[in-house]
Design the sequence.
């Protein structure tokens, strides 16, 4: 069920993006408005991240996961949307489902799996999101040539209906009492978020996604306008990032089981993301650009399973505090994903060049390396026990 929820999340994350020309024609809206169908759900997910973590602690994993399923299933009503406002409302509801699914995943896995198994499950969940994105982006336009584009969105949302029904019938909280509803106070929440390790994890993820989202969004236009590539060629280069990401997260969940501390994983990922990000727009030849894209895709995803598993090494960690940690990561990374493409676009309009915006965002791509070097030794070690939560 966890894998299915993340597949549903991935199918609907960017599935509407290839259909935006049809959306613009059908609803008679401009490109800025159409872009909100992609970006606003991320902003809603970001805004709901920390409150969602607190809500998961209060109502429990079972109810929170059901809310996530239902919110994503609402997209099944896409075929009924007569106008832009109603379609946007469904996408905003998906944003709530995005936040609830992400924040509930940590306590769900913590209740049912061992620490090593959680690392593998985090890897599989993240890979499944990437797979869902790849499937939807690749199939949306061809399907829209056969059926109405609204029916395509309904089709992508249908897995949410099935998942909600199955979870309603069979889903339950883990047998561990700590996974059941238990309110977490505002003071406890702030204490969790002030922890050094938590701050480093939030910084690492948000920084990488500032670079990743900015480059994913604007590299095709950059290659087309300033390198003379066709849009198809430019899209092929950019498409390497999520494709490599699938294998990177699988490696990030398997390799740490055999060797290496969290610090080593973060350093390798940070170097790859930092150097690869710069190479995608600074290297002159296509061979170098392809290699840089592979490095960027690998570095942007390799660390993720470890990032999501490290909180389990903190002393005194509970499902409730874990939900808050996942919520904070969701909040700041979601804001980063919303802001960075806008920043690059605004600088491009003001300076007639993508390079200044790319360079600003590329600086943030090194946060995984920085966070890895600053991780407390006890948390970075391979053994699960770690530092006090407030450290």
Sequence:
């Amino acid at each position: 069920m966890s894998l299915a929820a993340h597949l549903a999340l991935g199918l609907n994350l960017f599935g509407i993006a290839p259909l935006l020309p049809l959306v613009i024609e059908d609803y008679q809206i401009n490109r800025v408005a159409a872009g909100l169908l992609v970006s606003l759900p991320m902003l809603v997910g970001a805004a709901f991240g920390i409150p969602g973590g607190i809500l998961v602690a209060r109502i429990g994993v079972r109810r929170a996961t059901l809310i996530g399923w239902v919110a994503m299933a609402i997209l099944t009503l896409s075929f009924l949307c007569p106008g832009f406002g109603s379609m946007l409302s469904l996408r905003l509801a998906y944003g709530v489902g995005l936040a609830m699914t992400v924040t509930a995943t940590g306590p769900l896995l913590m209740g049912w799996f061992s620490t090593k198994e959680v690392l593998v499950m985090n890897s599989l969940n993240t890979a499944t999101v990437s797979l869902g994105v790849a499937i939807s982006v690749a199939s949306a336009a061809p399907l829209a040539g056969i059926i109405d584009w609204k029916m395509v969105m309904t089709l992508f949302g249908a897995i949410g209906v099935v998942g909600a029904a199955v979870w309603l019938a069979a889903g339950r909280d883990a047998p561990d009492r700590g996974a059941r509803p238990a309110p977490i106070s505002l003071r406890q929440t702030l204490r969790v978020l002030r922890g050094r390790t938590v701050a480093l994890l939030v910084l690492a993820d948000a920084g990488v996604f500032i670079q990743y989202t900015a480059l994913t969004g604007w590299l095709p236009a950059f290659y087309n306008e300033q390198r003379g590539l066709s849009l198809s060629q430019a899209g092929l280069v950019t498409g390497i990032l999520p494709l490599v990401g699938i294998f990177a997260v699988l490696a990030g969940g398997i390799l740490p089981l055999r060797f290496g501390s969290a610090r080593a994983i973060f350093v390798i990922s940070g170097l790859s993301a930092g150097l690869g990000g710069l190479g995608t727009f600074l290297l002159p030849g296509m061979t170098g650009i392809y290699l840089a894209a592979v490095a960027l895709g690998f570095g942007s995803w390799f660390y993720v399973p470890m990032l999501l598993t490290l909180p389990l090494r903190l002393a005194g960690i509970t499902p409730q505090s874990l939900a808050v940690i996942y919520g904070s990561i969701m909040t700041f990374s979601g804001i980063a994903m919303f802001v960075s493409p806008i920043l690059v676009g605004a600088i491009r309009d003001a300076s007639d060049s993508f390079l200044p915006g790319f360079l600003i965002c590329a600086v943030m791509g090194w946060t995984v390396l920085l966070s890895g070097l600053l991780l407390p030794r006890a948390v970075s070690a391979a053994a699960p026990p770690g530092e006090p939560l407030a450290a």
Q: What stands out?
A: The chain has two domains: 1-183, 185-391. The chain has a mean pLDDT of 83. The chain is about 75% helix and 0% strand. The two ends are 34 Å apart (CA to CA).
